[in-house]
Amino acid sequence: MEPVAADLLMALASGTAGAAGQSLWERLRALVQRSPDPQSDAVQGDDEPELGALVGALDEDASDEERAARLAEGLALRARQDPAFAEALALWRREAEQVSGAAAGGGTQHQEISGGTQHNVVFTRDVHGSINLG
């Protein structure tokens, strides 16, 4: 399984991915609190508090790369031990990457000004609210 990128975790924890990102962050929180599959190599209750604590720590400081890296490592460890968790995490990661990519500028845009003199030029994307050029 491909590991979850620490920068993806930081983006979702910080809220920069909007409402969809917040929803995904809550889903990750629920996923790490789930009990391991009894058939897996994971020891019941052994790593859930740790993962839950790591999610909480990243909630407190979403810009902390070390916390994000520790969470990514913990997720990878649990995924290696628990195939059901690995499958759920892989699905979560694919959705998170799509949401994060859209929030970070998914979709290409090209803006160009040429010829003559322009006044009051504004380039925007995804405006949610009014713009006042006063």
UniProtKB/TrEMBL annotation:
Q: What is this protein called?
A: Uncharacterized protein
Q: Which organism is it from?
A: Streptomyces werraensis
